[in-house]
Amino acid sequence: MTHSNKKINRLTPTNEDTIGPYYPISFCDGDSIDMTTAKNGIIFEPDGEKITVTGCVKDINGNLANGVLLEFWQANAKGVYSTPDNMGDPDIDPWFTGYGRHRTMNGNFSLKTIKPGRCGDRAPNITLTIFSDGIMRVVTQLFFENDPANDQDPLLQVVPEDLRERLMIKNTGKNKYYIEIIMAGENETPFFDDLLS
Amino acid sequence: MTKLGRQIVIGPTDNTSNERTPRNRLLLIPDAARASFVPWAPRVQGLDPAEADLTRLTPGRPRAEGDPIKVTGKVMDEFGRPIKNSIIEIWNANKYGRYSHIEDHSGLQLDPNFLGLGRTISNDQGEYEFWTIRPGAYLARPDINRWRPKHIHFSIRGGSSRLITQMYFDGDEHNDTDPMRILMGDNFHTNIGKEYETPDEDFDCGYKFDIVIGGKNPTFFENI
């Protein structure tokens, strides 16, 4: 298929819309915000440093954004994502999916996970998708403060230097981390466009 | 390639939109980082086929109040390729405009036979089918008399495809003042369910709602 053909044949995408305030909570019953436990009652665990990232999502007034649905996605301790394309990769961790989902009632969250590894130029990071009343899906990536790989990370390079700090997960103690997501206004978290790019 | 990312616009008369819409333009993702933005969501296993029928709590229970409707369609990527084995979730208000959600404090009438939430999985052709009750419109902003038109919420996930949208009804008197509909502009037609007759069946009518998931995400991994 040539480039021009592609353009002609493309269908008009259905507009994204807000998730609204009433996403059924029971649809989240099987969800987990603990990526360190592959399955209940199984002795095997993923490799790597177990960490807890606590945080919150706030609105333009500094109030907690209640009822937001959060999706987390990350590589394993060796920097490999678990996707259908790399099932045979020897560095895949069979006990780590890298996917977590959580509806936060009040805007706070506490993610239990494995510290993601570096992958080539990419510094350790966690992708965060936010679904909220009032807006369409927004996405960003969170990094670890003072990680030596941050300086070369190609995504951080496109973030204005003075805003990079807003994407940094801060170490607050042994295996403990913290980040605030500001959806709008002063100190707004940088978000990325995964529709146009 | 576009030079700039989108500027998300605030939905007029929508307080939450004003509070939560990023004011800065979205940043474009460089190619070297693009794949890392595509989650591979594990699929939900073992759905009960009865979950696609919202008109009854369980088979054999009384039918909910209001007009039973079919909602059917096909989930595709921008090239028309079916998105199969995706989990499709819908949720909608009852005929009075009330959700069964614990945080709906509107006080509108509940229907004990209507939960208003259902799930199914798209088949090999990307097709899905739900039975539900035509939802009622409801007054979302009593202070300015602004209504939400009749609508059904949709979520598509599983694999690398991800979309949350709403199906609207053609001709609803409240469509034109809906904040999100206003933002959709000329593309609003993609969010309208196309009415069709369901002769000799126990439904008021059917609505065909085909869903096209845009962007690169749905095509990142093999659609298995």
Task: Report on this structure.
The complex is a heterodimer of chains A (197) and B (224). Helix content of chain A is 6%, strand content 29%. Chain A is built from two helices and nine strands. Chain A has an eight-stranded mixed sheet, with no helix packed on it. Chain A starts with a helix and ends with a strand. In chain A, 42% of the residues are buried. Residues 1-5 of chain A have low confidence and may be disordered. The model of chain B has no long low-confidence stretch (mean pLDDT 94). Strand 9 of chain A pairs parallel with strand 1 of chain B, so a sheet runs across the interface.
Question: Summary?
Answer:
The complex is a heterodimer of chains A (197) and B (224). Chain A is mainly β and 197 residues long.
**Class derived from helix and strand content of chain B:** mainly beta
Discrete helix count of chain B: 3
Low-confidence stretches of chain A: 1-5
N-to-C CA distance of chain B: 29 Å
Shape of chain B: globular
Beta-strand segment tally of chain A: 9
Helical percentage of chain B: under 10%
SS summary, helix count of chain A: 2
Distance between the termini of chain A: 20 Å
**Biggest sheet overview of chain A:** 8 strands, mixed
Low-confidence stretches of chain B: none
